[in-house]
Design goal:
By secondary structure, the protein is mainly alpha-helical. The strands form three sheets. It has a two-stranded antiparallel sheet with strand order 1-2. A two-stranded antiparallel ribbon has the order 3-4. Helix 5 packs across helix 6. InterPro entries: DUF4639.
Length: 366
């Protein structure tokens, strides 16, 4: 019995290391889970605190913006204007711009003015029922009550140019000026006078446009800034003067022969008398003609073209040279003298002077 117990004890000792390994691994896994849970909860708490910390200023600013918008809605800010206007004595208000004149180009954009219906005017005699019914002016519906006078009566809503007749009809007042119709007892209203003037102006404008159309028929024209008509005359390019003159010049290799003199040669009285009669006179005239022809031939044989000397003066005479500059033109040569400094050994003072003068800027000759 003792031997069997001893064997069981040995077997239990051999199995203990494996069980210990599994037990240690399980304990480590449980410990890692606990630590991860703690870290997760800690990070969650920190994130919540960070979010609350960031949300607070955003919520405050949003609430302040909403409240200020409500306040501004109730109390609208107005422009205080120019507070220092009275202090600035040089400030002057700008003048109002003049409206643009209506020209031909903008006539299509000008709104038309509707004409008012003519007002019927009754003559001096008592009107009949038909005429009185037809001469009544339709009244517009009254929207505002008539103003009352001090004694409580309603004032009449008639215009300044209308009066109420004895039969309750509307009669226009007499015009400012009286014409033939006024002499005959017919009242001329201001509307009729203005209508007559408009008709006269429209008639003159229509006549002018018709006359202008007849004159411009088949011709090109345009308008200027003021609406005036400008005729466009096309020029014929074939009749324009030549833009380049090329005269015909002929060069002869030899002088042209002198044409024979036309008519009878003149004879001087002295040669005619010394030659003796007709024979002497004719001989003297022939010698003179030959000498004149020979002189003319020699003059034509001489070259008439001469090379023109240049009118520009020489550079050696006109250009001023700086020190250290030598100018050569053709065979001539001219020097400006030795420089006051040596380029190999130049002090700071000489360099500053050289930079300030025209020598350093390249303005000198050469």
């Amino acid at each position: 019995m003792s031997r069997a117990n001893h064997q069981q004890h040995n077997q239990s000792q051999q199995a203990d290391p494996l069980e210990q390994f599994w037990a240690a691994e399980a304990a480590e896994t449980a410990t890692n889970e606990v630590i991860e849970d703690l870290l997760h909860r800690t990070y969650a708490q920190l994130h919540a605190k960070c979010v609350c910390k960031r949300i607070l200023p955003i919520a405050v600013s949003s609430a302040a913006t909403d409240m200020m918008s409500i306040v501004r809605a109730f109390y609208i800010e107005c422009d205080p204007g120019e507070a220092d206007l009275h202090r600035d004595s040089t400030w002057l208000p700008d003048e109002e711009t003049l409206p643009a004149e209506i020209d031909t180009w903008s006539r299509g954009a000008v709104p038309t003015r509707s004409r008012t219906p003519p007002v019927s005017v009754s003559n001096g005699g008592p009107p009949s029922r038909a005429s009185s019914a037809g001469s009544r002016v339709p009244r517009s519906p009254r929207t505002t009550p008539r103003p009352k006078s001090r004694d409580g009566r309603e004032e009449s809503g008639l215009g300044q140019n209308m009066v109420v007749g004895p039969n309750g009809l509307l009669i226009a007042k007499a015009p400012r000026r009286e014409g033939e119709r006024a002499e005959r007892g017919v009242v001329v209203t201001e509307e009729e006078e203005s209508r007559r003037r408009r008709q006269t102006v429209d008639k003159e404008e229509a006549e002018r446009m018709e006359r202008l159309r007849s004159e411009l028929r088949g011709r090109d024209y345009t308008y200027d800034a003021e609406g005036n008509v400008i005729l466009v005359d096309l020029s014929n390019p074939e009749r324009l003067p030549s833009y380049q003159l090329s005269p015909h010049v002929a060069l002869a290799p030899e002088p042209l022969p002198t044409p024979p003199p036309q008519g009878r040669p003149r004879r001087s009285a002295s040669k005619g008398s010394s030659g003796g009669g007709k024979g002497g006179g004719s001989k003297g005239g022939g010698v003179r003609d030959d000498s004149m022809a020979r002189a003319q031939t020699e003059m034509m044989a001489q070259p008439t073209f001469k090379a023109l000397d240049s009118l520009q003066p020489s550079l050696l005479e006109t250009m001023s040279l700086a020190a250290g500059v030598t100018l050569r033109e053709g065979e001539g040569e001219r020097s400006g003298g030795d420089p006051a400094y040596k380029p190999e050994r130049m002090s700071k003072k000489e360099f500053d002077l050289f930079a300030r003068t025209s020598h350093g800027g390249g303005g000198g000759g050469g």
